Amino acid sequence: MVNAAKVLQDLRASAERKPDVVVRLGKPLVENGAVKKLDADAWLVYEQVAIAALDVGDDALAQRCIQALEQKFPGSARVRRLHGMKLEAEGELIQAGEIYKAILQEDETNILAAKRQVMLLRAMGLPSDAISALVKYLDINYTDFEGWLQLADLYLEQLMYSQAAFCMEEVIMLQPQNHIFHLKYAEILYSQQSIGLALKQFCRVVELCKDHVRGLYGIKLCTSHLLKLSPSKDSTATSQEDLKAIDLLATERLIATYNAASSSTKSVSTKWIENL
Amino acid sequence: MGAWTVLQERQAMLLDPAIRDWVLLPIMLVMVLVGVVRHQVTVLLNGPPRKADLKSARETKGLQRGSILRAHGNHLPEYAFEARKAYLTEAFEKGTYLKDPKAGNKPKGNVMQDPAYVETMMDGMKKNMMNIVPQTVIMGWINFFFSGFVLIKLPFPLTIRFKSMLQRGIETQDMDVSWVSSLSWYFLNLFGLQSVFTLILGSGHAADAMRDMQAMSTMGMGPAAGPQMSPTGQPQDMHKIFLSEKENIELTEHEWGLNNVETRLLVKYGKLPRSILVDQKKAKAAATSVSGPSTSSLSSSSPAAVAAAAAAAGGKKKGRRQA
Question: What pTM did the predictor assign?
Answer without folding.
Answer: 0.70
